[in-house]
Structures are given as structure tokens and as C-alpha cells.
Amino acid sequence: MVWPIIGYRMCSLLRSKVQSMGSFIHREPVWCLPFSGLTSTSVVSSRTRPLTKVMSWTKPYCGHAATSSFKEQQPEDSSNCHRLSPENKDLDVGNMAETDGNQDLFDLMKKRFLSFKKHAYIKELEHFQALAEAQSPKFLVIACADSRVCPSNILGFQPGDAFMIRNIANLIPAMKNGPSECNAALEFAVTTLQVENIFVIGHSRCAGIETLMNMQDVQSRNFIHKWVANGEVAKLRTKAATAHLSFDQQCRFCEKESINQSLVNMLSYPWIEDRVRRELLSLHGGYYNFKNCSFEKWTLDFKECNVTEEGRSYAVKEQEFWG
Ligand SMILES: [Zn+2]
């Protein structure tokens, strides 16, 4: 993604319409590298918002998505993949990928549920009973439906922490695209729950983004095609900025660019734009790379954004790299 990783100084140069943005990027490919060009100086410190209470029963995400190349880089006791402590090792009750037959799958699910009840619900009874009455999540999270990237696993969201939307390629359509289950959930989270943060989380090797990038016919009636077409602007920006890169590199680029398109699209909803303007709501982007188990986080800099009928530009701030 181009725009988020450039220094703040560069943002003013990019405050232009889509077309001119593309041509600028094309001339200066060094700025196009999506986060892969991050240096220690471009990464903001570890100033991170502490996650809300992480209960002891949380089973860390470790394993299936790790590639051989990643494993080769990590020592056996890698801190990237926490071991279960003795007190909760009975949570390690099995692996669905290694389970045959539906009955076994549901048996495993039952064990996990009873483990949750024993180690979380009963231990934190007061907390869970309060949650039974009402929710007041700090976050609305929009993440891909991909089975490998559950935000509760990788970022430790606990019951009550985050209202969550998951869809193909973690896309937020612009308001003009009409109603969908996505913007219905968006409206509920913002106007009723009054969340303080919206966090759009993308990921590496996203099949939805690959479909978008491969799609030739924007008029296709295929449901998947019609959905991912919500990312068409990100695709056009990507194509304009990365014509010299391989298709795989273009997809990595678009995975991040589409997150920013979704952040900007959210400003087309007046009840979001108003709360962002009054600093009651912040819009964040995140990118999970499960090939090397790293995470990038940034925040849309609303004051530096310029979204009009004629064009749109945006800037980001508070970039962090966790890995
Ligand atoms: Zn995906």
C-alpha cells in the first residue's frame, strides 16, 4: 500500500485525485512498496493500546498458518507462538484439522465449549453475567471471512470487546452502493453501540483480493464477483501504481490498498463522518501477514483527508509494526 507507509511529509503530495495519484506513484515506484519497505524509522514505537482483559483461558493462535519458511526462522521456543501454561494445558484438547468425522468434530467442539465454561465463564462469572445484560464494545472489527485470520484468535478479542463483521476480503462498500448486511451492522455498531474505534483488518494471501484483481467482467452476476467489486477503486489504484510488479506483488499491494479504501468509504456515511469529525470515533487499518506472523496497524488521519465528489486522498498516522 502506497499511501499509508509514506512519511507524513509526503501526504501533501498525494492530496490529489485518483488519476493523478496513480501517475505520481508510477513515477516514484520506491514509494509504492506496500509496507515491505518499512524501516525501523518508519515504524512508530510500541505505543500500543493495551488490549482489554485477556483471560487465562485464551488459547493462542499458533500453528496451522505458519509456513515452512517461517518455521525455519524461529527457534523451538519462539515467543511468537506461546505455549499453554500448566494451569490451562487441558485446553489443548485437539485439532479440528486432524479430526475425522462430524461426530468427532462436534465432540471436540463440546470439549472446547466446556473448557470455555470452566476456565472463563465460571471464573469470570460477574463479568459474563454483566455481558448477558448488555454489550458495550470498544471496537467494531471488520475482518475477512477466511478461516485462518480470526481476529479473536490473533488479537485476543474477548467476549464483549468487539462487535464483528466478517466478509470476503474485509470490504466496506461506499454508501452509494446501497444496503447490505455489512452496512446494516456498521450502522448498528456506530449509532446504537456507539463504538469508539472501527478496525478494518486485512491479511496476506487473501483469495477475495486475488479474485478482485483477476476479475475481468465487472458486470458479472456471480455473487462473489459482485461483492468484491466493492473494492474496484483499490484495484484501479493498485493497477496504476504497480504495473511493473508481478501479479502476486500487486495482490499484496491491493490487500492493503483495499483496507484504506474501506476506511475512506466509511466517511461516505454521514453518521460515521460526523462522529469522526467530532473525535468520538477513530478509523484504523490493520494487516496480518500470516506468512511471517507479523501485524501492521495504522490510523486514518481524518484531518489530512480530502474526500469529495471529484476525488479522494487520504493520509494515515500512528503506524505500528508488531512482529
Ligand atoms: Zn481474505
From TrEMBL:
Residues where Zn(2+) binds: C144, D146, H203, C206
Keyword vocabulary terms for this entry: Lyase, Metal-binding, S-nitrosylation, Zinc
Highest taxon of the lineage: Eukaryota
InterPro entries: Beta_CA_cladeB (IPR045066), Carbonic_anhydrase (IPR001765), Carbonic_anhydrase_CS (IPR015892), Carbonic_anhydrase_sf (IPR036874)
Cofactor(s) the protein needs: Zn(2+)
GO biological process, one term: carbon utilization
CDD domains assigned: beta_CA_cladeB
UniProt-listed Enzyme Commission number(s): 4.2.1.1
Pfam families (UniProt xref): Pro_CA (PF00484)
Family note: Belongs to the beta-class carbonic anhydrase family.
Function, in words: Reversible hydration of carbon dioxide.
Protein name: Carbonic anhydrase
Organism: Lupinus angustifolius (Narrow-leaved blue lupine)
